[in-house]
Amino acid sequence: MVCLHTAEGQKLFFQTVYVEMGSEARSDLLRPLGTKLNELGCVLTDDHQHTSTDGLFAAGDVVRSLDQISVAMGQAAIAATAIHNRLRSSETTV
User: How does pLDDT run across 53-75, given as a tens digit for each residue?
Assistant: First the structure.
């Protein structure tokens, strides 16, 4: 149980608290690569977190989403699987 004390002296009790600090996509490093971004500067990805730049994957706050740790972890797992599969398929063609 979390107890929040307000400036007015009121006590509020919660089972769960989520912090929202907002986020700003820091995608400036990707602009010279020509990676596609949306109007907010978030990196555009496909269903496997692959960007428009070959071999570049993105996850977390730089990608438009809920900006939550659990979402970023899921995106990272998807990207890692896609990277693994890509590397594995390149081994068989070499």
Answer: 999 999 998 998 888 889 999 99
